């Protein structure tokens, strides 16, 4: 509380309010949010989403309909890619999937339980 | 005839001899009505005696002899009903019945005529005794009668077994001896006949099988599935988000993801460098050819007065059609002197087509010289023009649209000779027919008072109201105009009928007396002579009563009009296909309540006569003192040019880059950069009189000079001077307008002061942008902006530095002052001491002070 009092003394009302808000956010912001924010802040990143093993989105920065579409389609593609890799060599496994199109690049990082999807516009 | 059931009828054949004897010849004695004759029995018996077996009556001899009566009835059987041509009735009863029957039909025939009028009286049938006609014999023959008596068997059980249950059982008859007697059949040789010959017929017939099956018919049926994706609820998302597994996963995966992201940021791995290096190979024409080539030129040869071209506009939809407004080449004083003569000559807008360089295709007539005009972007048949007297003139050439639509560019002349050369026809009659009169003019009292210098149609995406607030435009047509004039006002006009708040009956009467010629379309009749502007903005110069005189305006939405050629085509086609032309039904759009558009930039650029570029707002605000609507003060004012600004234009590629040309130099501005122009050229040797951006190359613009030269500037080549200069004509260039006809051809229309319109073809190098030219020019502008900002910052830094330097010098001065103060004191003290000593020595010398021995020592 002592810290807050000091802030009030030196800053204007507006700045104190924002400082307080940031402090509250820091309390609840988890590592998950931090990591996602970091990824999202890269240059050219259009959207980031985390999807569970069944293709149901957990966290996303895009709107709902787009997220659902991407999640469903990419989940199936990842399963297919994974099974392809394992069919060729059963000891191999899929680590990363990058789909480059004319407009964007879609990056999929698969895991046993989750899927991390990032869409980036690589051109300047 | 017993076999036939009529035993009394005996058919007979009577030969002609017999007929003569008995007077019963066929046609003479027997008639249709009396085909019978009564013959005497004695005669027949006599004949029988005479002719015995020869007599025809021989077969019936017995019957005749037994006949009770004396007369027998012989009937002529014309129809051979009983087999022969005559028959004899053998009984008295038969005779009677026949005779009665034959008589009965005669009676009703006689009574027929009398009975018709009588009412039929119902007579119930009376039972009569049955008369046998021989039918019972037939019945008797057909009926079945038992011929033998039936055998009766009675089988009974033993008395003791009465009432006891009965037991029946089966036995095979052949197993019990003598249970039955049979007469077995045996083949008897006597009766077997061996068939030695057989007559058999054969026919070859294909084996045909008729088989039928039943199949299940499947018919297509529409089926649909509706589904929604599985989603987590907010709480589940939260819990999952907090879970450790997700944190671990992200920590592991984010590393590889970030590597991938950074790879992309560093470089694009899929660029084909060789491809990007080479310029496009598919060029038409020589690459080194950068000259504008003369294509065609148009001059109006019919009008004798010296005219100049004030404004040029290509037709938005029809290729090869260009419209030109001409004005008389006189100064203001000369105009006033010869105003009487000028009234007789019509002021025209001429439509030239590439296919006919001598005769204009259409001539639009206006009340006075037009100084600027524009085709309506949503309907190219509507043209709005600004007059020298401050009126706005509207034309509607929908009726003549078919005349100009079928014009083709190029050398081939159209075979439709609708316009004959002028010298073949009488000049008077033809001239009147070809002029198209204007539809409507604005009100003289309420409009502009001086020449209208610029007119623009507002884009069809928005419309404004009296306050200047922007609303959505529901009618999807361009219905508002903006004009600026030399009387220092900018007016907004609406072409839709306004609701009249105060009725003005006297004025109405005056207007009604004006007859409207029959061939004028009534599209804008509601506006004619009573058209008032929506709002008027007065450009005043701050507190002084002086005002700015605007020459050109540039609104933010204009750049879309360059690229909307396809859009206009589509819209034009839509109105052709069967819909009502929206301009015929302008009132429809007024009733809808409009939605205001937020975040709409209502600022625009104006150039003035003094060479200033003003960036101001058209939204009106209420003056707190007087309560009237006032225009806002300009946001920015720049004095850059030395003469009147005649061109303010937005670049077709960048929405916020504006080109202004006036006086002797050129300036390029960016809308939000308030520091100054991005580029300001140094003064040219000759005055610039017109200019235009290139439509296809973002860094190129054309500037016309007063000596007939055109300067082509290329920002990627040189920015301090024009890249090229070419001579077009001998006199001042008044208007430049480029136009893209097709992907390969681009023309530029240059109008000069002497009234000639030159059409030149732009070479490939000037019309075709190089790869990434938009990006390069954009980069150039950004650099210029940064340069300006740097200059600003440097200014500030310099000021700061200057301030610091000043401070230092002052400090230095201050320090020396301090130093000298102490020194001065010391010096003063020394001086004082010296003075004291001097005083002492002088006094001693004078002998006023006795030098004591102490001092000497």
Outline of chain B, from the CA principal axes? elongated
C-alpha termini separation of chain B: 227 Å
| Count of helical stretches of chain A | 4
Give the integer mean of the pLDDT values of chain B.
Answer: 77
Category from helices, strands and their pairing of chain B: alpha+beta
Query: What is the CA-atom radius of gyration of chain A, in angstroms?
Result: 20 Å
Oligomer: heterodimer
Instruction: Sketch the topology of chain A as an H/E string, one letter per element.
Output: HHHEEHEEE
Largest inter-chain contact set: A-B, 39 and 27 residues
Give the rounded overall mean pLDDT of chain A.
Answer: 80
Overall SS class of chain A: alpha+beta
Largest sheet data of chain B: 5 strands, mixed
Distance between the termini of chain A: 47 Å
Alpha-carbon Rg of chain B, integer: 65 Å
Name the beta content range of chain B. Answer: 15-25%
Query: CATH H-level name of the largest domain in chain A... which superfamily?
Result: Dynein light chain 2a, cytoplasmic
Instruction: Please estimate the helix content of chain B.
Output: 25-40%
CATH class of the largest domain in chain A: Alpha Beta
| Domain tally of chain A | 2
Organism (chain B): Trichechus manatus latirostris (Florida manatee)
Protein name (chain B): Dynein axonemal intermediate chain 3
Coiled coil (chain B): 790-841
InterPro entries (chain B): Dynein_IC, WD40/YVTN_repeat-like_dom_sf, WD40_repeat_dom_sf, WD40_rpt
Account of the 3D structure:
The complex is a heterodimer of chains A (124) and B (857). By secondary structure, chain A is of the alpha+beta class. Chain A has four helices and five strands, in the order αααββαβββ. Chain A has two domains: 8-41; 43-120, Beta-Lactamase (2-Layer Sandwich), CATH 3.30.450. Helix content of chain A is 48%, strand content 23%. Chain A has a five-stranded antiparallel β-sheet, with helices on both faces. Mean pLDDT of chain A is 80; it is low at 1-16 and 20-27. With 857 residues, chain B is α+β, with helices and mostly antiparallel strands. Among the domains of chain B are: 9-100, no CATH class; 368-404 and 432-498 and 519-547 and 619-629; 822-851. Residues 409-433, 500-514 and 559-580 of chain B have low confidence and may be disordered. The chains are: A alpha+beta (124), B alpha+beta (857). At the A-B interface, helix 3, strand 1, strand 2, helix 4 and strand 4 of A face helix 7 and helix 8 of B.
